């Protein structure tokens, strides 16, 4: 199980796919670099799993092209692609032992049996479960099954590794451990990897870059922090982290140097230079502060009244009614901190540079 | 393998591994086979029913003749009456067993449910003769009644006998379906009703009963269909004024050109289709079991001592009654003389030695025919299941429909159709008509039992998660390799169970084979029992043969149960 000598990239060109009349993927374009750990993030029904399965060769043949390295695999059979896939439910064959499961792909490749034995052992060592080789899958815990599924996939040294929500069946603690292990394994093998998840924390913590999908369309591609800080639209802003989103429009002042954001509820805020038109103003709860009095000219100030208070452990989250918009404000919690009460009048303060304007 | 496919790609090599061809060819072959052995014989029967026997012109006169004859009108009415009454009596037997065992905490629920299935392992016509001995005019029960109370009950007189034997034999269909329905009712359905203030009979009437209804209807329509079509039981009880016996008698005595046999066949098929349609309507959109999560069955409650006593009393009476055919048959097979007395005069094992000495042929024929039929069925069943559920081949639904359609075709109709179609065709390289060849019985059995095997194979295939196949494919296994190494091994239990079901039910089938037996040497067990039972002297050996049939079917059923449980465990499903 040596490091792949040459990792390959994946190119997705204008890929579309329909189940009957339902269009599940609509003209997807994507370039994944060799050796990259890439995440597909999106809600269920967004098309992320369908896209992953299309790369593996499952489901209807899509329109457009899928290239692995420079090989066009679009209409190839799954078994001709040399793509490793780890399934959500692991898909370990219950009638075979762990050893037989892991050996399967090598046998299909007509590898000599002495070599198979050696490589199976190495793969099981890699996931730390060599001692379970003779067990049946039903005798393993969820985490162990997950590792065996990984070993079974990487043992054939696939060109790319596809992970379909691999952690969703594990409990919370194990999930954190496994995602670190998977990342470590990926770095060791240098395998180009795509990880499908609906869990933003998983995507944020593991991936070099990620694509956010919704309704079969890629909304934005980039490193996790970039997507968080500069969401391309209100969907991305809302899906990654919590966000306060004010919908409205921007009117540009006569001098062109400043503009005014007018929310749908009539709230008016003065901003710097912005193009006119329909827009959303987005800022994060943890970048919003509660102030007793108005101050600081550079900040956006929004007067309102507290309507709820939630204790989230590390944070206290306030819901504040500002002109009919309920906005969230997070404050760090510490022992003995003085909290505000529901009904208190407050002003919200957001630094201008923490607020992002996206066009609708 | 995938990484070096390019080096192995030959210019003129048909790439079967990519499976564009394989399933298509297999599907076509199966389609042609079913066309010849199922669709065409049945179509032929339908066609002849509308043909003038002399001129060959199309006509409905045959049907007019049929309904003008008093005997046939009576047969029609009798068949309908017997089937309906059997449903009612079967319900009376099955309802308490199903309800008590699913509703109350009851020691021995499993045992009762198991005993309740036992009638199915005996062909009904075998039980028919034995039942005469217990319940007939001079049977044990009536002799005792007459001695002590001075009256008798005509349990076995004419149609009563058929109704009794059929109800006792077929009630398990209702028991199985009703118990399954009751067990599948989500406990929260009942709890929700209790929570909203409903209880007792109202709860039963408004919640439990409607939820269990589809299962009951499915079972009841199956009973109706089976009884309406059955040939063996009325024949052995010498009740000839019913449809199936009339069809058989017309064809065997008047000849295969007599149109009445065909008219009756059409009526039998129509009624079969009708009861299947009723069952379909009942289940349609009401598959409550899968719409609900959790299941868990009804709330079980403890019985008060006197209630418990009452339940056990009812169940004991029912079970004694239900097991009567087996008891009587067993006694008959070891009795020297048994007539005009509640119990046999003496006991002997002679009948068994006689059977093994003279009637060995019946047993070996049956093992051969049923074995071959079972084998054909699981091969076809596995292939059809895969084609229907795992490929997108054009016409796959039709293939499934035709294969399952055999359920709606009564054995008599298959028998008549085969006689008509294969009598004029000789076996290759001989002048023996195909219809008289023993192999044709194997094919008839295989076609008739195909739906059972197919269902078992489909169930087995559906247990194989698609991702298990995809995992193999993504690791480089072609479709064939995936089928061979993943799909079929995981289906083994289901396939074996399908084989055993086909084998066990084919071993005791009478209605199609009775028409296709050309010479005694080729005859199977069921036919042998029929022949023996025709004479008073043959009843002992006939009963011995019947017990052997029961043992074969019983062992088969038990084996299939064990196999299913074992595979479930091995595959971690349980």
Textual characterization of the structure:
The complex is a heterodimer of chains A (360) and B (574). With 360 residues, chain A is α+β, with helices and mostly antiparallel strands. Chain A has helices at residues 48-56, 98-108, 113-126, 142-154, 172-189, 200-206, 224-229, 234-239, and strands at residues 10-19, 22-32, 37-41, 63-68, 71-72, 83-86, 160-164, 192-197, 209-214, 217-222, 244-252, 259-263, 268-271, 277-283, 288-291, 299-311, 315-322, 325-332, 345-351, 356-359. Chain A folds into two domains: 10-234, P-loop containing nucleotide triphosphate hydrolases (Rossmann fold); 242-359, Beta Barrel (OB fold (Dihydrolipoamide Acetyltransferase, E2P)). In chain A, the strands form four sheets. In chain A, strands 6-7-8-3-9-10 form a six-stranded mixed β-sheet, with helices on both faces. Chain A has a five-stranded antiparallel β-sheet with strand order 13-12-11-14-20. Chain A has a five-stranded antiparallel β-sheet with strand order 15-19-16-17-18, with no helix packed on it. In chain A, strand 16 and strand 17 form a beta hairpin. Chain A is elongated. The model of chain A has no long low-confidence stretch (mean pLDDT 89). Chain B is an all-alpha fold. Chain B folds into two domains: 16-44 and 351-574, Orthogonal Bundle (MetI-like fold); 60-335, MetI-like fold, CATH 1.10.3720.10. The two termini of chain B are 36 Å apart. The chains are: A alpha+beta (360), B mainly alpha (574). The A-B interface holds A 56-58, 77-85, 87-89, 91-95, 104-105, 108-110, 136-139, 152-153, 156 and B 1-3, 5, 18, 465, 467-468, 470-478, 481, 485-486, 489-490, 570-573.
* Rg result of chain B: 26 Å
Strand content of chain A: 35-45%
Main beta sheet strand tally, sense and closure of chain A: 6 strands, mixed
CATH C-level class of the largest domain in chain A is: Alpha Beta
How much is the radius of gyration of chain A in Å?
A: 25 Å
Structural class of chain A: alpha+beta
Provide the CATH architecture of the largest domain in chain A.
3-Layer(aba) Sandwich
Relevant CATH superfamily of the largest domain in chain B: MetI-like
Number of separate helices of chain B: 26
| Helix amount of chain B | over 70%
β-strand percent of chain B reads under 5%
Q: Shape of chain A from CA axes?
A: elongated
Instruction: Find the structural class of chain B using helix and strand composition.
Output: mainly alpha
Mean pLDDT metric of chain B: 81
Number of strands of chain B: 0
Strand order of the biggest β-sheet of chain A: 6-7-8-3-9-10
Biggest sheet overview of chain B: none
CATH topology of the largest domain in chain A: Rossmann fold
CATH-defined fold name of the largest domain in chain B = MetI-like fold
């Amino acid at each position: 199980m040596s490091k792949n000598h040459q990792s390959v990239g994946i190119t997705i060109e204008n890929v579309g796919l329909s189940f009957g009349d339902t269009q599940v993927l609509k003209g997807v374009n994507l370039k994944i670099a060799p050796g990259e750990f890439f995440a597909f993030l999106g809600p269920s029904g967004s098309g992320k799993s369908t896209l992953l399965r299309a790369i593996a060769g499952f489901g209807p043949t899509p329109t457009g092209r899928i290239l692995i390295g420079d090989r066009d695999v679009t209409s190839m059979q799954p078994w001709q692609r040399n793509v490793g896939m780890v399934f959500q439910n692991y898909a370990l064959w219950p009638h075979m032992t762990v050893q037989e499961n892991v050996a399967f792909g090598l046998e299909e490749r007509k590898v000599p049996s002495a070599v198979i034995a050696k490589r199976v052992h190495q793969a099981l060592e890699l996931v730390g479960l060599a001692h379970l080789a003779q067990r049946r899958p039903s005798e393993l815990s969820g985490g162990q099954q997950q590792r065996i599924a990984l070993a079974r996939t990487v043992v054939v040294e696939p060109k790319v590794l596809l992970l379909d929500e691999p952690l969703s069946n594990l409990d919370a603690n194990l999930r954190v451990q496994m995602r670190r292990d998977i990342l470590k394994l990926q770095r060791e093998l240098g395998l180009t990897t795509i990880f499908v998840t609906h869990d933003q924390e998983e995507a944020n913590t593991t991936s070099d870059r990620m694509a956010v999908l919704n309704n079969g369309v890629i909304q934005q591609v980039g490193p996790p922090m970039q997507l968080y800080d500069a969401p391309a639209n209100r969907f991305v802003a809302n899906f990654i982290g919590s966000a306060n989103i004010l919908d409205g429009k921007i009117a540009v002042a006569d001098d062109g140097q400043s503009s005014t954001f007018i929310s749908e509820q009539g709230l008016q805020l003065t901003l710097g230079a912005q193009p006119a038109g329909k827009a959303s103003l987005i800022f994060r709860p943890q970048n919003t502060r509660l102030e007793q009095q108005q101050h600081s000219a550079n900040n956006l100030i929004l007067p309102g009244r507290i309507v709820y208070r939630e204790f989230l452990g590390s944070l206290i989250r306030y819901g504040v009614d500002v002109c009919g918009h309920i906005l969230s404000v997070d404050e760090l919690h510490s022992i003995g901190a003085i909290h505000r009460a529901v009904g208190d009048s407050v002003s919200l303060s957001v630094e201008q540079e923490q607020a992002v304007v996206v066009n609708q | 393998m995938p990484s070096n496919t390019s080096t192995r790609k030959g210019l003129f090599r048909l790439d079967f591994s990519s499976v564009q061809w394989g399933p298509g060819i297999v599907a076509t072959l199966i389609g042609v086979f079913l066309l010849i052995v199922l669709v065409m014989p049945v179509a032929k029967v339908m066609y002849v029913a509308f043909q003038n026997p002399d001129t060959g012109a199309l006509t409905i006169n045959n049907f007019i003749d049929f309904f003008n004859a008093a005997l046939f009108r009576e047969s029609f009415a009798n068949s309908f009456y017997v089937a309906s009454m059997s449903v009612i009596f079967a319900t009376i037997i099955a309802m308490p067993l199903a309800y008590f065992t699913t509703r109350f905490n009851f020691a021995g629920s499993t045992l009762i449910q198991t005993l309740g299935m036992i009638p199915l392992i005996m062909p009904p016509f075998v039980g028919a003769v034995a039942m005469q001995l217990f319940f007939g005019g001079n049977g044990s029960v009536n002799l005792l009644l007459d001695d002590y109370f001075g009256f008798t009950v005509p349990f076995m007189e004419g149609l009563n006998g058929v109704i009794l034997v059929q109800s006792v034999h077929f009630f398990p269909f209702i028991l199985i379906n009703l118990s399954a329905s009751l067990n599948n009712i989500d406990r929260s359905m009942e709890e929700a009703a209790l929570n909203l203030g409903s209880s007792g009979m109202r709860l039963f009437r408004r919640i439990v009963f409607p939820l269990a209804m589809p299962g009951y209807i499915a079972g009841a329509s199956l009973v109706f269909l089976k009884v309406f079509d059955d040939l063996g039981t009325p024949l052995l009880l010498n009740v000839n004024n019913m449809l199936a016996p009339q069809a058989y008698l017309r064809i065997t005595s008047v000849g295969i050109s007599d149109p009445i046999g065909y008219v009756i066949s059409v009526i039998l098929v129509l009624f079969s289709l009708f009861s299947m349609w009723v069952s379909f309507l009942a289940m349609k959109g009401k598959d409550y079991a899968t719409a609900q999560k959790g299941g868990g069955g009804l709330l079980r409650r403890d019985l008060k001592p006197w209630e418990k006593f009452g339940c056990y009393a009812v169940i004991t009476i029912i079970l004694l009654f239900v097991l009567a055919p087996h008891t009587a048959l067993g006694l008959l097979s070891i009795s020297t003389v048994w007539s005009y007395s509640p119990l046999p005069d003496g006991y002997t094992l002679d009948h068994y030695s006689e059977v093994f000495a003279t009637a060995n042929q019946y047993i070996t024929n049956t093992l051969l025919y049923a074995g071959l039929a079972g084998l054909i069925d699981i091969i076809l069943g596995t292939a059809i299941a895969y084609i229907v559920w795992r490929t997108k081949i054009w016409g796959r639904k039709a293939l499934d429909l035709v294969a399952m359609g055999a359920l709606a075709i009564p054995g008599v109709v298959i028998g008549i159709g085969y006689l008509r179609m294969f009598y004029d065709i000789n076996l290759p390289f001989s002048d023996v008509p195909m219809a008289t060849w023993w192999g044709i019985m194997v094919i008839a059995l295989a076609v008739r039992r195909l739906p059972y095997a197919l269902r078992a194979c489909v169930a087995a295939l559906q247990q194989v998660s698609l991702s298990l196949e995809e995992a193999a494919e993504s690791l480089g296994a072609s479709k064939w390799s995936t089928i061979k190494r993943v799909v079929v091994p995981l289906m083994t239990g289901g396939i074996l169970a399908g084989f055993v079901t086909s084998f066990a039910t084919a071993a005791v089938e009478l209605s199609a084979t009775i028409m296709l037996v050309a010479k005694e040497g080729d005859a199977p067990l069921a036919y042998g029992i029929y022949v023996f039972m025709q004479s008073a002297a043959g009843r002992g050996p006939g009963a011995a043969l019947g017990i052997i049939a029961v043992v074969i079917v019983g062992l088969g059923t038990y084996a299939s149960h064990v196999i299913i449980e074992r595979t479930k465990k091995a595959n971690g499903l349980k």
